[in-house]
Amino acid sequence: MDAVMITPMRWRIFAVFFLMASVGKAELPVGSSPAALKFEHFPTPVHAFVFRNWNFVETGRLAKILKTGPKKIREMAAEMGLPAEEAAPAIYRSRLYLSLIRRNWHLLPYEQLLELLEMTPQQLEYTLREDDFLWVKLGMLKPKCERLVWEEPSADARKRCAEIRELIQKEFGAAMGGPVEKRFAFLEEFKKPVADPAHRAAADAPLRLIYSYFAVYGDPLSDPTLDPYPDGLLARLAEMGVNGVWLHAVLRQLAPDPTFPEFGEGSEKRLAELRKLVERARRFGIGVYLYMNEPRAMPAAFFKDRAEMAGVGEGEYTAMCTSNPLVRRWMGDALAHVFSSVPNLGGVFTISASENLTNCASHGQHRACPHCKGRSAASIIAEVNATIEMGVHRGNPEARVLIWDWGWNDGDAAEIIRGLPKSVWLMSVSEWSIPITRGGVKTAVGEYSISTVGPGPRASRHWKLAREAGLKCVAKIQANNSWELSAVPALPVLELVGEHVSNLNEANVDGIMLSWTLGGYPSANLDLVRRLGTLPRQTKDQALDSLASEKFGEGALTARAAWKKFGDAFREYPFDGGVIYNAPIQLGPANLLFAKRSRYAATMVGIPYDDVKGWSGPYPAEVLAGQYEKVAGGFREGIEELEKAVAKAPPEREADAKKELAVARAARIHFQSVANQVRFVLARDSAAGEERTAKMKKILADEKELAVSLFRLTREDSRIGFEASNQYYYLPQDLMEKVINCRYIEHHLP
Fold this sequence. Notes:
This protein is α/β, with parallel strands linked by helices and 750 residues long.
């Protein structure tokens, strides 16, 4: 295959729809549409399809897509040694669709993908655009796939299936006979009703705002069965000192408007669900906040009779220009409607630059707008935020409006802050702009990071400006995990978290936002934040000592030693926005290896492929591998200490302690696997010879071992591999496929 022209995208560039394919009445994006990858470790693409979807989609639906009978699918699954057939739980349809899209992206054309997902073209188009930038995470292209049709396996295919079955039995037979926790089993602990909350946040407590560990991101209020905050989760979060939770919302879905009759469909249903959530959360002393990234860009047809409202464009979408008073009137009225219809709604936080195309200055293109070209970006952004504040406070004067400086040009910050209403709170990512040196490479933090402890110069400068303007200040941090590794519920780097929160106490911020979509699990990390925020405040060491003693009893000192080793190791993380978004850190050993260059560019927290250049950011590839190995090595040492602490934990704490140990082991596996994958690609692309073959064989053997180890861990803990806005990065069967993949490459090395 000739080189596919897939331009690597910077991590701040977001969804632009271009080159559309008509499917039904909706147009689905295709981008450059290069040829799909072939997965030669399976006998045929049909075998890959059955393997990847077995027990996650009903057998009958798989058969229907392939135009055969369920018996044939069962026979093929058995021939490959897959586990016994189980009914696919109904929850998979509503909470596994992102995982299904990714794992079938190179296997199915859109028509069959829609059948698999049981979606309409319109639903899939909305998912690709609005479900946390899924189109970007998929590389902004749809690989060209031939329609899959059942054919009777050949003798060679059956022979290959027998080899796969034998390999699976050898490597995974013992693990498949061990304990197993169904995917999404973690939901059950949070769904239990709570009659009388044991913990309720004090009304005057500092703001502690967080996202649900498992909320469906795109349209969480449309389906009552997808409760983002059941009582059990609210109770656990309240216990951890959380007093605010947030939801993604699209404003046009929440309020009708006479000027825009296409807006507001289903709004009463959504507001009714929001009212229920707000009242339930109040029982725990928790307020509900909405994420406002508005006004969202609209397709060209929307502006057919509204040319005066059209702002800058990107691809098929155009901004609703906020220099137009009708657009601002709609925003204010819609928010007033929401906040008057849901009287106790806690507030909003805004993003007004980057993310989606919203106002004409959101992506720095306002000079191209005939209505905005004479204005400064700062005046536009300040006006948008002032419009949001006005609408919210018309509906509820007591609601909080948090203005987030995410994506603002640093040179515009002072003017924006001076132009904000005095009632708003300014929020800034605490650790941004901190200079770091890792592996001899100098760079600066420009994304969420736990390995770098804040606050940094940007946040400190913006908070100073805010205080001079009479505004309150909020720090945005990640207390549990970050894109440095989001496939585990919480990283055991409590020393770093404790140091960061202690620093924020010294900075006298008025609140802390504890997570983006990742990092909402009620963990020991959140408990530590609570201890550091409770009056009279403890020092970092006092809080860590009390937490370790409570969790590990006689093993407290050893647990502290483990946490220090984890933290020291994590300070070596090769941080860069490009690295954390593009490297295979979220998939770890679930990411496949390629015997030949795939020619695909890594995608943002999506599909890493074998794009070492895209993974590395400013780091030489060998340095990247070495730094991940340092982190993995430090975690190995910390795990040895944590094992001793778990052995001394009180009986009533033993189960939780073992889970924390499993999470630490899973994290180490991810770090080591990234180092392995970098070195594999470097060896693969080097000159042929015995040394090259030996290196590749060694890495293949280690990757197989890591995949088997992670298979056991993820089978026993349904949290591992999961993140709310991406759902499951990988499923146990993906780790089985990785071993098949490694063995196939090993057998075909020269």
